[in-house]
Automatic annotation (TrEMBL):
Organism: Methylocella silvestris (strain DSM 15510 / CIP 108128 / LMG 27833 / NCIMB 13906 / BL2)
The keyword DNA damage is annotated on this UniProt entry: no
The protein, known as: Phosphate transport system permease protein
Alphabetical list of SUPFAM superfamilies matching this protein: MetI-like
Cellular localisation: Cell inner membrane; Cell membrane
Every ABC transmembrane type-1 domain range: 87-316
Length: 329
């Protein structure tokens, strides 16, 4: 009887161990299916958005054809619609925003990580990050009542006078100083995307191994040489990612741009003139759209914005892959 009892002890322990292993295996399989379901859900949602945009834009695209992308005219009364002016405004305002925000954001990140006194790093960093939490409509109200009058009185007249005799710039900065317009919208977007570029660049710069910078300083490099030759090349992929994130925010921004761009469906050579963007056009007119063709044209604008964003992100991804390949990663 004692022998039988002793033989049962190892088998009981083995069964307990087997039950634990089966429970762990079940947990792993459940976790695998849950995560896979989450990934598939994202793909299904994305596919549903694309399908709804394509289906909704078919009436407008079939009616106007390729002329929808090359026509500036937008007249709901005669049901003549063209997307060229919103496309132009979207690309130009986003370009202005990134030309302003990218170097300033990277400069702020360099200052916070390399030059700023340690006690001031956290307060300045928090202040910059708080800019990202301000609602876009607040930026729009501030831009309409503060920034636009300031530009109208002080900045735009100076630009018109300064570049009056310069061949190309005289056309870009011509006309009466409206205050609102494409340039003002670009300034607002630059302020809005600046926290994204600065915060991500700062986080990426902090990942640079200190031993690399110390070695460079030990070789006699100046602070500028360390930043230019060590910090920025090491973190270039993350910096480009931050700039692309800011560009994506600029392309899709709606309310702030709607307040200050002027909402005029026309293309002007001057950056001081009113214009419109895809997001602003949809926000202004979707609730007033009467008729299937009008609604379909606005949905087609949304499809165009989606395609533009996808193309820009694809180009950014390709550039990042080339950088990794050149670096031997």
């Amino acid at each position: 009887m004692v022998d039988v009892a002793l033989e049962d002890v190892p088998s009981a322990k083995a069964q307990d161990k087997l039950r634990v292993l089966n429970w762990l295996r079940l947990q792993d399989k459940s976790f695998h299916f849950i995560t896979m379901g989450a990934a598939l859900t994202v793909l299904l949602i994305l596919g549903g958005v694309i399908a709804s945009l394509v289906i909704g834009s078919i009436p407008a695209l079939s009616t106007f054809g390729f002329a929808f992308f090359t026509t500036e005219k937008w007249n709901p009364v005669t049901e003549q619609f063209g997307a060229l002016a919103p496309i132009y405004g979207t690309l130009v305002t986003s370009a202005i925003a990134m030309v302003i925000a990218a170097p300033i954001g990277i400069g702020v990140a360099v200052f916070l990580t390399e030059l700023c006194p340690v006690p001031l790093r956290r307060p300045i960093g928090v202040a910059i990050e708080l800019l990202a939490g301000i609602p876009s409509i607040i930026y729009g109200i501030w831009g309409l009542f503060v920034l636009a009058p300031f530009l109208q009185k002080h900045v735009q007249p100076a630009l018109i006078e300064t570049f009056a005799n310069v061949p190309v710039l005289s056309s870009l900065f011509a006309g009466p100083p409206y205050g609102i317009g494409i340039l003002t919208a670009g300034f607002i977007l630059a302020i809005m995307v600046l926290p994204f570029v600065a915060s991500i660049s700062r986080d990426v710069f902090e990942t640079v191994p200190p031993v690399l910078k110390e070695a460079a300083y030990g070789c006699g490099c100046t602070t500028w040489e360390v930043i230019h030759a060590i910090v920025i090349p090491y973190a270039r992929v993350g910096v480009i990612g931050g700039v692309m994130l800011g560009l994506g925010r600029a392309l899709g921004e709606t309310m702030a741009v709607t307040f200050v761009i002027g909402n005029a469906h026309r293309i002007s050579e001057s950056l001081l003139a009113p214009g419109t963007t895809i997001s602003a056009s949809i926000a202004n007119e979707f609730t007033e759209a009467v008729g299937d063709l009008y609604t379909s044209s606005l949905i087609a604008l949304g499809l165009i914005l989606f395609v533009i964003t996808f193309i820009i992100l694809a180009i950014a991804r390709y550039l990042l892959m080339r950088l990794d390949r050149q670096a031997g990663i």
